[in-house]
Structures are given as structure tokens and as C-alpha cells.
Amino acid sequence: MAPFLPPGSTPQLEAKRYLERAAYFGNGAAQFKLGHAYEFGVAPFPPDPLLSVQYYSLAAQVRLVTITVGRMDADMRCSVDILRLIWP
Predict the structure, then answer these.
(1) pLDDT for residue 65
(2) Concatenated DSSP letters for 23-82?
(3) Under a CB-based contact definition with an 8 Å cutoff, are residues 62 and 33 in contact?
(4) Cβ neighbours of residue 57 under 8 Å, at least 6 residues apart?
(5) Which residues in the chain come in under a pLDDT of 50?
(6) Cβ-based neighbour number of residue 67 at 10 Å
(7) DSSP string, 10-34
(8) Which residues 6+ apart lie within 8 Å of 85 measured at CB?
(9) What pLDDT score does 75 carry?
(10) CA-to-CA distance for 24 and 68, rounded, in angstroms?
(11) Contact yes or no for 16/45 (Cβ under 8 A)
């Protein structure tokens, strides 16, 4: 039995949609993953430093980033991204 995908969609686009939805509803792990995806341009996310900073900031505020990563890593990544924007 094949998984259901809406017509014209791909598994990557569906994963992106659900990850963005989880981040929107305040899931810290999803916010951190989106920050990482936008920082490094992981498909299907284009590299976008501003979105990366936004999602890392949200993850740091929620304080629910994964146990192995912790809040300090989200804060640090946010700082690094801001520095990249200021001094390319």
C-alpha cells in the first residue's frame, strides 16, 4: 500500500509542509531543524540566513530544542548567523 500524497506533491514537499506547521505551532525541535535547513540549504529549503536566524531565535525562546543540542547551541547558531549577515 502506497502512502497518500496530494496530487502534484512529493514526499520532500510534504515533509517541508509538516515541519513548517510544527514550527508554527511552537515545536522547538522543528524550529531548530528549520533553522539548520535554511542555514545550510538542505533540500527542499533554499539557503536563507534571515529565516535561519528567525527559526534559531524561536527555538532558543521555546527552550525545547533537542536534549543533545540544548538552548545554548540555538543561541550560538543565531549569533553566528547574525555575524554572517553583518560581515559576509
Answers:
(1) 45
(2) HHTT-HHHHHHHHHHHHHT-TTSPP-HHHHHHHHHHHHHHT-S-TTTHHHHHHHHHHHHH
(3) no
(4) 74, 78
(5) 64-68
(6) 7
(7) -HHHHHHHHHHHHHHTT-HHHHHHH
(8) 49, 50, 53
(9) 60
(10) 22
(11) yes
